[in-house]
Prior knowledge:
Low-confidence stretches: none
Shape: globular
Organism: Arabidopsis thaliana (Mouse-ear cress)
Protein name: Reverse transcriptase zinc-binding domain-containing protein
Domain Reverse transcriptase zinc-binding: 4-36
InterPro entries: RVT-Znf
Number of strands: 0
Mean pLDDT: 90
Oligomer: single chain
Largest sheet: none
Pfam families: zf-RVT
Amino acid sequence: MMKWIGGATGTCVLCDNNIETRDHLFFSCPFVSEIWAVIAKGIFKDKYSTDWSQLLDHVSNANQTQLESYLSRSAFQATVYTIWGERNGRRHGEEPHSTTLLTTWIDKHIRNKISTIRRMGDRRYDEAYQAWLISRT
């Protein structure tokens, strides 16, 4: 943005501290890393990271179980979507949301996705809801 728009500031609107890059926004920003830790540590376990490239490698890894793959990809997707929305909202003058509220939204989104799949009769993810709840503790 700084190259395209002469007067644009490149400061991260979430932490107001660093230049906003992809790697900073996902997931090095202190604001975002707080959310990511709550959402992802229980799912990613020893593979937990805030490094974009490592995370892409992990969610793309075909050597995970179907359940591990589903939960890690869901956590990644829901967090990226929520953070991008928060970032854009702040850039356009909307009220900022707390890390607690954003974490709650992400958690609820993932629970709703799992519940919807189960209600549609897809039994492949019967253990997903329980696994997600366990990862939250």
